[in-house]
Amino acid sequence: MASKDDFETPEGDFVSPSQIEVWLLCQRKWAFRYIAGIDAPSHPSAQKGTAVHTVLEQWLAYGTVIDLDATVEIDGKPFKPGPIAAAMIKHLPHPGTCGTERHIFVRTPVAHYQGHIDWDVLKLEIPKIGDHKTTSNFKWAKTAEDLKKDPQANIYAAATMAETGADAVDLQWTYGRTVGKPVTKVVHLRLYRAEVERNFDELDETSAEILAAKAAGLPPLEHDFNANACEAYGGCFHRDTCNLSPTERLMAIMAKQTLAEKMAARKAALAAGQPGGSAAPPPVGGAGINAPEGPETAKPETEAEKLVAATKPQTLAEKMAAKAAATEVATTPPAAAATKKRGRPPGKSKAANADATPAAATVAPIVGHGTRTKGATPPAGGEESPVQIVDLKSFALFIDCLPVKGGLFIQASEVCEPARVEVAATHNVGDYRLIDFGKAGAYLRAALDRRLTAEPITGIGIVLDTRTDLGKDTLETFSKHAGLIVRAF
């Protein structure tokens, strides 16, 4: 890395940390902005950050007194950046003792990089650079471990090392919380030259991809997408024009299936084994769907195909099928698992064999230990005897406990995910818990109640952990819809 003309100017535009982060998040989102030139409007959370940043910049550069009562309108509501900035300044240099808003450049044989450092103190044995950050919740704040590989941190460190000749740089990311009482969090990290140079190898690879994509100029919809990014940072502005099918969009969150369809798929997966634990042989020629008409056998997989299959993300139904298969193998007695001989069992006539109806596949019942509080009469063994779920018309709710054996159960968090996404999107927040204090749980319960009413869940167990915020917020709703409730002793 260098700050002067040590290398020929590479072709292509400058690459910024924000551009790299968007590319790594979703290449299609990157293309909407950097190929099609469609800039998304600033999200309210970003507007709050800008307002706080402006106050801090004026204070560091000129010592401008912070007005605690000044307001700006964001998303139709008044916002006071002053108290947040005032809480942050105790972690910052004194006014006039540091550089502010310095435009920096880094050049490698592959790309030009640029950025703006919020503040720096270069005349130290180990130079120090800082960045102002705001967040609604500190759980979104980057850790020191995150910063080690962070594009912005490494580009800023590289520029500072190139300018000062230092072999190490101290970084300080100062976070101010924008929701509730103004509080702060500071993240410190020291980066060394060897680390930065290693990280730039990866940055250069990413930048080469970015510059090549920009030179190719393909329209946004021809770029790869990341469905996980659709709801990130309050929701992508380009969702409506991105042209993702529902399956593509929801696969990364849960799956396209409704909960009822997922449960049916899981029951089918658990019931797929033949009596004795042996699975039915596959149809000749491969899968039953779109199977070849002739008796040809499936071609063996190439190594590349095996690698793709091994790394392909599984749907929830596929994960449950794999879990069921592993359970079947682990619990099947050796005698039952032995390969059956061909022919009819002794004493069975040919006619009787022909008229016999295949045994219906069954799903193993869930059995759990706990205290019944709803929906079942205790067996003779007493109130704390095992609870067996058979032909339950709704679901069994396991509160702070797990089924001790048996087939089909699901975590409450998985059932809640569509409701969580719905509530967060409706209120334009990244997580339902960021809604105004005291209202988040009510909104989630209402959304979950609607979904459980529209798509009843039957014949399975749902495991709920009330130690979590989600468990506390949804206990009432799950209890309302459960046919059987089992609590920890």
Automatic annotation (TrEMBL):
Residues 15-61 form the PD-(D/E)XK endonuclease-like domain. Pfam families: PDDEXK_1. InterPro entries: PDDEXK-like_dom_sf (IPR011604), PDDEXK_AddAB-type (IPR038726). Residues 272-304, 326-383 are annotated as: Disordered. Residues 326-338, 351-365 have a biased composition (Low complexity). This is PD-(D/E)XK endonuclease-like domain-containing protein.
